[in-house]
Amino acid sequence: MKTIVMKEAAGGYTVALDSFAVAQGPMVLRIDDSPVAVLISPADYAAFQAWQAERETSGALAAPPDFEHAVATFERLKPALLEQYNGRVVAVHDGRVVAVGDDRMAVLEMVTAQYGPVPCYIERVEPETPRRARISSAWIAR
Prior knowledge:
By secondary structure, the protein is of the alpha+beta class. The protein has helices spanning 19-23, 42-57, 65-85, 104-115, and strands spanning 2-5, 7-9, 12-14, 27-31, 34-39, 89-93, 96-101, 121-124. It has a 3-stranded mixed beta sheet, with no helix packed on it. It is elongated, with a radius of gyration of 26 Å.
């Protein structure tokens, strides 16, 4: 990747570009040793846009359907859950409550013991359930 250091001129910055050099691959524009932009060819930009659009529509970041179904079931059953299990932790799997307890980890252990490692939604039954996000993470081997 080629690097171009930008020079300040009156009223802004100027960059002299060689079309052959741009066609050779990405070019990093720097000001005072700090990267400020990257120039790529139109073909590379089109490929990036296609990749980005496909990633957004592929559902790669979506939760598994079974988990989404369990969350929806919890929300649908919430009025009845508040009457029966207010303040307790419940696990929802396969359209119904499958475990109840006072601690999330204990409830997860109950589910795992009875059903194995299945997708389920575990939440404390409260009038205002906090909004949670499922965030994937990467493990770094050391």
